[in-house]
């Protein structure tokens, strides 16, 4: 989902509209978070943990982030070397499912 700046109002909206038992989401992937290295840890969704992210270091805007359910075992993939600010921004994870 392209959130075009992850403000407190948008966090509340996403939590209310999408992070509910109705959708059974295990992952939440957002683009254009506009988070930077200073505020990257400030966004919280109930029942979810931060899984991976990329934030711009020199330009405004952009950024991508993945959250996953707290009970999902994941390993972040370091893709920062592939990112080019304002051109290509990516983050990734490997989910380890236990059946």
TrEMBL record:
It comes from the Eukaryota. InterPro entries: Endo/exonu/phosph_ase_sf (IPR036691). It comes from Photinus pyralis (Common eastern firefly). This is Endonuclease/exonuclease/phosphatase domain-containing protein. Gene3D superfamilies: Endonuclease/exonuclease/phosphatase (3.60.10.10).
